[in-house]
Amino acid sequence: MFISDINILNKEEIVTEMRNADIEKRNYFEFKHKLASGEIRNVEVYSGPIELENHHLLYSIIHDTTAKKIAEVKLEQAKEEADLANRAKSEFLANMSHEIRTPMNAVIGFSDILASEITDKKQKGHLNSIQTAGKSLLTLINDILDLSKIEAGKLDIQYEPINPQIIFTELQQIFSLKMAEKHLEFVVSTDENLPNALYLDETRLRQILLNLIGNSVKFTDSGSIHLCATKEAYTTHDCIDLILAVEDTGIGIQADQQKLIFESFKQQDGQSTRKYGGTGLGLAITKRLVEMMNGQITGISIPGEGSRFEITLRKVKIADTVPNLKIKHVFEANNITFEKARILVVDDVDSNRNLIVEYLTPVNLEVICAENGQKALLFAKEYQPNLILMDLKMPEMDGYEVTKRLKEDPNTSDIPVIALTASIMFHDDNDIKLHHFDGYLFKPVIISLLFKQLSKYLKYSENIKVDDEPCLEEKFSWDNVTNILVLQNIIIQEVIPLLEEANMGIEQETIDKLATKLNVLGKEHNVSIFIDYSKLLQEYIQMFDIINMLELLKKLSEELELLRMKTK
Q1: CATH superfamily for domain 160-317
Q2: Bridge-partner residues for 368, per DSSP?
Q3: How many whole angstroms separate alpha carbon 225 and alpha carbon 308?
């Protein structure tokens, strides 16, 4: 029998393959062999020369790899199908975001306008219910889409120098009241050699720890919760492995459920949603955030005794200093007036155009509307607006194409174009530059953010003095506050509990209550900074801007601590 009797290659092809193997100094081959029955099988062959009874022979060891090849093909097909399904899911969520956010733009926008016009208490109550329901729906949408952004690679980690010890101290303050209510001991221990400044994403790190500690508080009725931070050093001395752990004496997790809790929308079996709440997204988002920060998270739990979640962030760079952070100024409809200018609004939805008209007309701006791309091109040339607000998703000619043509035309190329988008996937400077936009706003459109964008390109005046880089903490003084002792008691009894609850869950209803409470106290006790915080919180709630919202809650905690020290 010859090799050619079982190999489907002809003699010349086999000789060529053997010659190539000799040149490459290899003894391994992948062939297709034919069985006596005529069936073709995939095989791998290991061959080598031997000498037997003065004869030079070639020996071969042959493995049938047909099943392996079939499995590899099926695995590749499954991977392609999974990738296709994931892309389809991302596309669906992006479309869902647009289709739901677009009508929500009108619901939230016009209800906000009505809130400033209605004085009847009963009507205000009805309107407040509409606003609360609308914002709750928007929060639910964003909670789901936050995970989608991570999976689609549209969420970026922003590294900057931070002091982790400040975050740990802040967490102690945030959870102190809740711990006291449940008679829990909260212990924070850190490595004394932990650097004071590390390059981390402060907002995401806080979000991770708030989630883990919040879960521990939720599922622990007695005992303690322990947050610890240690490090492992590298020989280069410029980075460390940061190890963070949250350990509790709570209800624990069943062994067969411990892997499931890191999956989206998964909660352990038997968990009472009515008692504990939640959508099952928290740990899934936490796990992905940790992985994006070059780390891993593990969980160990014993039912009835407690759980320990440990995070290892690898090669965290050591920084020299930690810069001071500032919160930017808020633009308001009742304290800003633009110099006479013309705005072109391009949107195929009537309610969206009408809402922008209602926003801009009272501040001295002339508004021209176009319901499609062709009209937008004509109106831009004819009326030469000072700025264009451009919807992205329109029939026939979308906002991308319209903007491209505007920027290519010398007659309109210098007109600033601000994108109005309901898509969560459009969010960074690369998108802006790639599609020739000068800026972007998310729907539902927040009036203060709209004015902030317009102020970059239009001249305006304000009733209050605005510095180049204004911030809330620079000019405020507690000396002008009225009834400061009464205010302190209200803060202890009503504001701090809401602040702690807001930090634990970042829930729409809680933050709405906190913002409303701050606004009322600000007016009653002449605390202008509370009014500013209230407006900013409302702004971030509607945008579900988790990054700025967490930073603002942190700054609020610091202001309340200053008030406490003031009244000692």
Answers
A1: Histidine kinase-like ATPase, C-terminal domain (3.30.565.10)
A2: 344
A3: 10
